[in-house]
Design brief:
325 residues, alpha/beta, 7-stranded mixed β-sheet, 14 helices, 19% strand
């Protein structure tokens, strides 16, 4: 009888242990940005924060891209990712550059960083505004960034609100330059660029260089253009501060801006996403140190203004800490 009792206790002890799926390390792949970019560094810090608080989660950081990440999540090529809000709105709606809505993706965190769109006129042939350029069919040489980049996509979106395409620009005698920004900076120095677009945080090096010896003029964004961009893509309003680029901007200029958000697969367990969200919120100081643009991370704004539905695991954590009802 005693042996039977001991055997029963042994079985019960085994059953009380975590199941293999619980005891074994969880494995997650993080889709970040290009290896040379700020997203890769920032998401590396996110990976470290998760592994530090939950060592049982095996984290693998992979390069990615703003346009490809949501689709790769949907195809289960990763578990956690990052994307620019406006592009994620496009992915959720299935509008340019996406052919259909991306499904199986949830949001968990608005990073609340600020990427501004700079529209910079260069030299004496620069237009006074986008509206005057289009009205007068002004033949400008414009730098829009590499095809498929966030900057290039925003330029295409803005022109489309006026019913204008790159072919129209070219038909006016203008030129659309899609070289990388290193090449474009050299072209601008040589007087071969009239208008330059750049979407990003802070002060980019090539504009700093241009500002030293080139006449630059930041073009404002009209209220009408902002409203159309906001209604369609969730773009926000901001200003280019007069103090940027050592005061070369000269005055505050109305502009468009965007923020990045963190995404997960919708089919991930509530517990796993809860733990990831908790680790990111509690590790935000170290993450902000790794990527200075993310010092704006805040649990209060994290569940707000997201492109995809908030994952239940993240919602549970935000409710627990009192920032979501």
């Amino acid at each position: 009888m005693m042996l039977k009792k001991l055997a029963l206790l042994a079985v019960m002890a085994v059953l009380a242990l975590p199941s293999p799926s619980q005891a074994a390390n969880e494995k997650i792949k993080i889709l970040s940005g290009p290896t040379s970019g700020a997203w890769y560094v920032g998401m590396g810090a996110v990976a470290k924060a998760i592994n530090k608080q939950f060592p049982e989660i095996d984290v693998n950081l992979l390069p990615g891209g703003g346009l490809s990440n949501p689709g790769r999540l949907s195809k289960k090529e990763g578990e956690l990712s990052i994307g620019t809000h406006s592009i994620m709105v496009s992915a959720a709606k299935g509008i340019d550059p996406f052919r259909k809505p991306v499904t199986g993706v949830s949001s968990i965190f608005n990073l609340n960083d600020v990427s501004r769109l700079h529209i910079i006129g260069i030299g004496k042939n620069a237009p006074e505004s986008l509206e005057s350029m289009i009205k007068n069919k002004q033949p400008v040489h414009m730098v829009v960034g590499p095809m498929g980049s966030g900057t290039e996509l925003w330029v295409r979106w803005m022109l489309a609100t006026y019913g204008v395409t790159y072919k129209d620009i070219q038909s006016w005698g203008g030129k659309v330059i899609t070289n990388n920004f290193d090449d474009a900076a050299d072209m601008a120095k040589d007087g071969n660029v009239d208008l330059l677009f750049w979407l990003g945080p802070g002060e980019i090096w090539f504009v700093v260089e241009l500002s030293k010896n080139t006449t630059l003029n930041w073009l404002p964004v009209s209220d009408e253009l902002f409203q159309k961009m906001h209604d369609t893509y969730g773009v926000q309003r901001t200003e280019i501060p007069s103090t940027m680029f050592s005061g070369v901007v000269g005055k505050n200029v109305p502009a468009l801006c965007d923020a990045a958000e963190l995404l997960v697969r919708s089919d991930l367990s509530e517990e796993l996403v809860y733990n990831m969200t908790k680790a990111i919120v509690e590790g935000r100081e170290d993450i902000g140190t790794a990527n200075a643009g993310w010092k704006t991370m805040s649990p209060e704004t994290a569940p707000q203004n997201l492109a995809f539905p908030l994952h239940p695991g993240a919602a549970k954590y935000y409710k627990e800490i009192g920032v979501l009802k």
